[in-house]
Structures are given as C-alpha cells and as structure tokens.
Amino acid sequence: xxxxxxxxxxxxxxxxxxxxxxxxxxxxxxxxxxxxxxxxxxxxxxxxxxxxxxxxxxxxxxxxxxxxxxxxxxxxxxxxxxxxxxxxxxxxxxxxxxxxxxxxxxxxxxxxxxxxxxxxxxxxxxxxxxxxxxxxxxxxxxxxxxxxxxxxxxxxxxxxxxxxxxxxxxxxxxxxxxxxxxxxxxxxxxxxxxxxxxxxxxxxxxxxxxxxxxxxxxxxxxxxxxxxxxxxxxxxxxxxxxxxxxxxxxxxxxxxxxxxxxxxxxxxxxxxxxxxxxxxxxxxxxxxxxxxxxxxxxxxxxxxxxxxxxxxxxxxxxxxxxxxxxxxxxxxxxxxxxxxxxxxxxxxxxxxxxxxxxxxxxxxxxxxxxxxxxxxxxxxxxxxxxxxxxxxxxxxxxx
Length: 399
Ligand SMILES: Cc1ncc(COP(=O)(O)O)c(C=O)c1O
What we know:
Elements: H1 17-29, H2 44-56, E1 60-64, H3 67-77, E2 85-89, H4 95-102, E3 106-110, H5 120-126, E4 132-136, H6 145-155, E5 158-162, E6 170-171, E7 174-175, E8 182-186, E9 199-203, H7 206-217, H8 231-237, H9 250-261, H10 263-281, E10 288-289, E11 296-297, E12 302-306, H11 312-324, E13 330-331, H12 356-364, E14 365-369, H13 376-398
Parallel strand pairs: 2-3, 2-4, 4-5, 5-8
Antiparallel strand pairs: 1-9, 6-7, 6-11, 8-9, 10-12, 12-14, 13-14
Helix pairs in contact: 1-9, 2-9, 3-4, 3-7, 10-13, 11-13
Bound molecules: pyridoxal-5'-phosphate (PLP).
Pyridoxal-5'-phosphate binds near residues 96 and 136.
Pfam families: DegT_DnrJ_EryC1 (PF01041)
Protein name: UDP-2-acetamido-2-deoxy-3-oxo-D-glucuronate aminotransferase
EC number: 2.6.1.98
C-alpha cells in the first residue's frame, strides 16, 4: 500500500491569541487608519515600524499595504523613471518584475545558478545596463552578498532587496535586507508573518525614508511616525514627492506586532521541518538537493530540489504521481504560468533574451511550501513519498 499525505500545503497556523486580542482592541476603539490616533496615543502602525526597525538594526522603517507596494515605492524613492532599465532576477515571482513595470520601468533579467541564486557572472556582464538592481532573494536563497555588494558598489548600482522570503534570514550574520539601500518585506499570508496583506520597508537613508513615507500617503502627518527621519528632511522633499496611497492600517499592524516578537522561534520550527525533508530526500537517484552556503542563515518556509535534465514528460509524471499521494509540487519548467508560479518568459510585457544555462536550471526546479501546520512526522512522510516516486520514475527512465 502506498503511503498518502492528507495535510494541506496552503494551511497556515492560526493568528496567535495575543494578536487576536490586539486586533479586537483596535476594532473596539475604531481608529483603524494609521493617522487616526487619540491625543498622546501611539498607533499600532507607528509602533510596528519602531519595533521592526529596532529588530533589524535599521534607522528607518515604513509599513505599507503589500510587499509589492514596498518594492515599487523603493524604486520610486531611488528615482527610477519611466523607461529606465532595472536589473532583476530571472528566477522570481511575478510581483517582482511587476513592481518594475508599475513605475513604467523595464526589467532586465539576470540568470539563475543551480544554487537558485542570481548568477553573479551574468550580473557582472549586465551591470553597465542599469543603475538599480531589484534583487529578489527568491525562495529564501541568498547569493554571495559580499561579492554582490562589492560588484554593485563598484559599478554605482543601487541595490533594493526583495526579502519577501528572507525575513529572519542572514548572510554572514547580517540580517537579510540590511546590505542594500532598501529592504522590502511582505506580510502576506504565505510569508513569515501573516496579516493577510501587508509590507515593510527599511533603510538607513533619511531621504529615501522620507520620500517613501510621503509616497505611501502620509499627507503632512509624517511627524506621527516613530521610525522616520526628522521634519527637516521632509521639508526638503514634501513638495516634490507625490502621494501614491498605500499605507498599512492599525488592524494589520496589531496582528503583526506579536508575530514579529515570536519570529525567531518560528524560524527554528521552519528549519526543523526543512531539515527533516532535506534529510529524507538525500541520495535520491536523479534528484539534486540545493546546497545551502555556510554563510547563509536561512528560513526553511519552503524547499526546492532539482530534477536536472529530466524530460518534461518524466517531470510531469513525478508531479502527477506525488499529487495523487497528496504531495503538491510546483514546477518552474512548465510552459504556461499556473497559480503563483511563472517564468521570466511568461512576462511578455518585458523583453527578454533566452538564457540557456538558466533555462536548464528553471526547467528542473521543483518547489514546495512547508507550512508550520506540518508536523515533523508529516515532513518525513512527504519526503518518503517524493523519494519513492522520483526513484521509481528515474529507474523506469534509465532502465
Ligand atoms: C518573491 C516575492 N517578492 C515579492 C512578493 C510580493 O509580496 P506581496 O504579495 O505582499 O505584494 C512576493 C509575493 O508572493 C514574492 O513571492
């Protein structure tokens, strides 16, 4: 009898009781808009920003409506104009090139390595094509950030980090989002903290922080922020920075603050699950484990492995057979975008040239969510199912 997994890959944990209480308090007083505060009151959104800035060791933090909004705001704040080229990852999800397109700019795609990080040699070759890099730490894989920053600094390229999958991760001990000029995070349900929708942006640059705050829709109420630069900085930019409304509200912020306090513990729980799955997949014939560099502290909220050089049909068979046993795998090699998954050549509003080495990697990337509702035994079972099906189909194909 084949084992079957019956859990849900899209079921997150409930919102913690403390967060529910905080949300109820906001609903009871009714002041949900971030600037709607009683005299002397510090609103939940302003407190969230203050706490996230402190946690990240950043001077400034702004909470906004989504991760994608944070990225578009960062692009506007660094001065990207319509028509400008912006370097970005070929292996990422649609909101990343979407944020570039949203400001009328043009994504220039950079390839992916078998480690699932941006190809730094390809980046080196393309650095002279743009003055901004939107660096996506896709699925939590961090590239050699020391080398990347050296290269970008030398070329005068500003780095904006998309940390949608790396909240809580670090490179050589430095938290993800602290290397570039701006770090952007998502608080959407499938991320490391969950307010349904929501985003956070951090920076040490006072002018970028002031511009981002004005852009998010602060009107002239920016003095109610607790992690923003002083009014003199806003004086310099307030007449020339548009309001592109995208604030966070106090209800979401109330839900997020207790979750942030618990993030380190959650990271540990994700990694226990990730390691169980990784161990279970080790030495599966035809399956390549994605090695994690020693300098990287990751958050195993999803796991990827490669079926490199497998034919489309055999990969489709693995996906189908795993699905029949309750294991949902996503594939970056499919010709058509499906669900949350798409590829650089699916984004036809942006020109791209084929990258054969990256295409080979993308064609073999299998991707799976690891929600915290999975027990460690669930993770072992899931790994056994994948191992079983991959081995069976690999042996058939090679016999
Ligand atoms: C890699 C990546 N970047 C950015 C985003 C955008 O985040 P949000 O959904 O909060 O706009 C996502 C969302 O899934 C993502 O996966």
